Structures are given as structure tokens and as C-alpha cells.
Amino acid sequence: MRRNLKFKNNNDKDFVSHQTIAQKQSGFTIIETMIAVGLFTIIITIGIEALLNTTLLHQKSQDERSIMDNLSFIMEDMSKNIRTGSDYHCIDDGNFTSSTPHSCIYGGSGMSFLSSSGNRFVYVVYPDGSIQKSTAGGTPGTFTPLTPSEVKIDQISGFFINGAEEPPDTGQPYVTIRLSGQITSSKGNIVTPFSLQTGVSQRLVDIAIILDEPLYSDTAVDRIASANDDAEEAVSTGEMDRSSGDLEISLDASNGNFDPELVGMRFRDIDIPQGATIDSAKIQFRVDDTNGANTSPITIRFYGEDTNDASSFSSSSDDISDRTRTSAYVDWTVPSWTSGGDEGASQLSADLKTIIQEIVDRPGWSSGNDLVIMITDIVSGSGHREAESSDGDTNFGPEITIDYSVWE
Questions:
Q1: How far is CA 347 from CA 227, 250, 252, 337, 340, in A?
Q2: Which range of residues forms the domain containing residue 137?
Q3: One domain, residues 251 and 397
Q4: What is the pLDDT of residues 91-139, one digit of tens each?
Q5: Are both 229 and 355 inside the same structural domain?
């Protein structure tokens, strides 16, 4: 039932209108206020959490960048020292103190090398996940850690070395360093994996070329100790003698006729690379016997056999004279030999380096081949010399000493 309000006057009507407006403007209820505060709290909490996460991520980024910078510096320092070092030794057997050059294509936990300062450096990945360095040859108590505690290097990391062995391996030794592991943040709740790799080639080869110096120099030595490696050939008949107790140089005095003869000497396993520079080459003889002719003047001529790998002497006639001679030859005016058993300066031949150079320059020459030197002519004089042969004494047969250098 609808009720109609009746006002006595206009003043009553105005009172009701103002009361209604006042009720509408009185504000939020308690429930509305609590809801508003709750929403505000949630928004603030989310904002603060987002800010904290952003700060944490920034801190993590800063920590990682600092640690990666540190690792990069370690890699750079190792590379610099390795690049200017020598005698690389891969530690793939747990031996930290060895100085023998040793390659390892499958890698090792560390490596040692001779630094440019002359100290023996060692870098190694320790079982605790750190990289440690020794500048005292790897002896116990000389290692210091390079990596910070936040870094743990995996045991699959290591050093891979190619071409470290001694000459005649003349290539540049090359080292690959591979490091992988994890970085743990300073708060310990964020772990980030990493992987680094770099390659280092030894620069001593380049330095040697720049300084116009050989890569290395060495000496090859061989003494004849086999009956078929020294022989005599009679010039008149071509008959070969491989069992004589001495080498009658230029003239055979054994029959009293002093017949001219040739002498051949084969030296085995000459460990000289093809194309090496021969600095000197001389044969040391030992006096077997003396007589008046050993003091008479004589100049003799040496040739080499022009072949890649000389064979031993056979019993076939003319086995010395039929061999192809080198273009190079050397004449030697032999001093007097006055006492049996002498093995000194008077029994040391002239320098035969031009003959040896021609042989090792042959395209088919290889390190470890054999070579033959022949005494073929009397240039002047009428004397002769009796040298010890391998048949006379295997300890005192002719001995050749060759000094050589390798440049590239």
C-alpha cells in the first residue's frame, strides 16, 4: 500500500532532503575500508618483491660478470706464459715434476713448461675444483690457487697439447685449454654453469725466424762397428776386402807392393732431417800401425755416395768404384801418423760438410738413413796411412761426427 507523505509546510520538506544527502556523504563503511587496505598491502608487497628480485638479479649479474672477468684474466695470463714458454709437458699421468716434452691429444689435468724467465711453471686442475699454479717445478707446497672459491672447475676440464716432442718435430707446439664448471653466487642460492676455451701456439719458432737463428742445432755421431760397413777395393783388380784388420788408406802396404786401393766407409742411422744445414762433418781415425810410409806426405780425396740410403758393402768386384759419387769432394793433406793407437787431431779428417750437405739435400733423404764416404784418389804424395778398421777393433773403427742446424 503506497503511503503518501504529507508535509505541514515547506520547512519539513527541506529537512528531509538535507538528512538524506548527509547520509550519502558520511564515507566508507568499515568493511569497505578493510578491503581497500588489503588491496593496497597486496600491491605494495608485489612491488617490493619485484624490486627485491630485480636487485637480486642485478647482484647475480654483477657477481657473474666479476667472476667471468677473473676467469678471463686467468686464461689470458696462462696463455701469455705458455705462448712464450717451451718444453711443454702434458700431465696425464699425475706426474707434476717431469720436464720431458710430452703431448696429449686426449688431454691431461695440467701441464708444465719452461717459462721465458727460466722457471718451470705448472698449471693443474685440482680435485677440489680449483686451478692452481706452481712456479717451482710443481714440487709439493709450491702451489697457489688462481680461481676464487665461488668457482668449481669440472674434472673433464684440462689441457690438450700437440707437437710438444723434441726435434726433428719442427712444428709449433699448440695447447688447447678447456675449462667448464659452475659459479655459485655469494649468497649460495644461485648456480650458473660456464664453459671457456682458448688455443695457444708457441712463439719461439717465430722468434727464432725473426732473430735469424736456427730452430735448433744438434750432433749426429756414428762409429763403424760392422764388418760389412768398411771395405777396401784393389784399383787394379776391383777385388773387395771386407775383413781386413786395418784400412790401408791410398796404398796397400800388406803385400809390399803398395798397390793403390779405394776405401769405403758406411755410417748408419744418421739422424739428420732432410734439408738441414750441415755446420761441420769430420771422421776420426785411429792409427793401427806405423812404418816409414806413415810419415810420408800424402793428400787424399773424399767423395760421398750420391744416394738416399746407402747399402752395406758386398763381395762383388768394384763395389766401391761402381757407386755414384757426389759432385762435392774434399781433399785432405794427412799429417804424419807416428804412433800406433793415436786418435787425435792428426787423425781427424778435413771438414766434409759439403759432401754431407749434398746427401741430406737429396729429396729422398730421410732422418735415420745411412751414408757412405769413399776415399778414392791420391791427389799428391807417395805416402800411405793405416787406420783401425771395425774388423781390427769394433771399438775403434772410423767415427763420424756431424754438427747440423735446422732453420724451419
A1: 21, 15, 18, 7, 11
A2: 61-210
A3: yes
A4: 998 888 888 889 998 999 999 999 888 889 999 999 999 999 999 988 8
A5: yes
